[in-house]
Write a structure and sequence with these properties.
The protein has helices spanning 15-27, 50-69; strands at 2-4, 7-11, 39-42. The chain is α+β, with helices and mostly antiparallel strands. Strands 1-2-3 form a three-stranded antiparallel β-sheet. The longest helix has 20 residues, at 50-69.
């Protein structure tokens, strides 16, 4: 995981893993379309609230848990 300010990059084993993560996140209401190659990227707006960050973190946990199971 790499971060600079609010910009976060998460390296996964392959682009296929990134696509699977994006699909799962999309089904959970999170857009991560900036991802490229084997890196899932997030760049939330600077006005993001704590509530929105909590929402994002919970969705990421859910997505990674589901990916780990399947």
């Amino acid at each position: 995981i790499r971060a600079l300010g609010l910009f976060v990059g998460i390296d996964l084993p392959s682009a296929d893993h990134v696509r699977a993560l994006q699909e799962k996140l999309k089904s959970l209401g999170v857009n991560s379309s900036l991802s490229t190659g084997h890196t899932a990227r997030l760049m939330p707006p600077t006005i993001i609230s704590k509530r929105e960050v909590d929402f994002l973190v919970q969705r990421f946990r859910s997505a990674f848990t589901d990916m780990d199971k399947g």
